[in-house]
Write a sequence for this structure.
């Protein structure tokens, strides 16, 4: 089983690239954002809690996210591997993922990081809010909070995965096709 992480700031193009990666490499895409939006749309207690946190630009607690990921791994044994998008977002989550995979004799095979500038993040998220009607992406203060949260809590993962030797950075300000070509070279 292969375990890949698609990493980068909000608006870096992870969702767009994930579609191409999943199709080419026959992987299951696990987007924590999609899992959470599904819970919010269903109005579950988890969804209501997540909605309040996300609309404020905050992260959902680790135990909630880890539980969803573990459940998804367990219920999808017939795939070649998984592409994680939006998880892990903190060192603590990365350690929990390593522990979870280690218990199965598995590990994260590769971390693909899409690197873009803060100005680009802001423009892309604001544009996505208009196109997709995502209210959590519409407020400039929320967008800035998401950027700040990424730098403070998620960016430290770069060092974590560099130490493990499975980190690869892709310039994310290229065309969609150029970014995908770079990703393919890393995964093939």
């Amino acid at each position: 089983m292969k375990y890949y992480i698609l990493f980068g700031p909000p608006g870096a193009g992870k969702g767009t690239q994930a579609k191409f990666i999943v199709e080419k490499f026959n992987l299951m895409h696990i987007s924590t954002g999609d899992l959470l939006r599904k819970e919010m749309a269903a109005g579950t207690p988890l969804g209501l809690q997540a909605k309040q946190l996300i609309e404020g630009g905050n992260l959902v607690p680790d135990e909630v996210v880890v539980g969803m990921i573990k459940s998804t791994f367990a219920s999808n044994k017939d795939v070649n591997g998984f592409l994680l998008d939006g998880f892990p977002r903190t060192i603590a989550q990365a350690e929990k993922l390593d522990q979870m995979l280690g218990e199965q004799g598995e590990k994260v095979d590769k971390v693909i990081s899409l690197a873009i500038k803060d100005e680009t993040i802001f423009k892309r998220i604001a544009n996505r809010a208009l196109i997709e009607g995502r209210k959590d992406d519409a407020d400039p203060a929320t967008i800035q909070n998401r950027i700040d949260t990424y730098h403070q809590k998620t960016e430290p993962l770069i060092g974590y995965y560099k130490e493990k030797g499975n980190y690869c950075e892709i310039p994310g300000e290229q065309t969609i096709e150029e970014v995908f070509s770079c990703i393919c070279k890393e995964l093939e």
About this structure: The first helix runs from residue 14 to 25. The beta strands are 2-7, 28-31, 81-85, 110-115, 167-171.
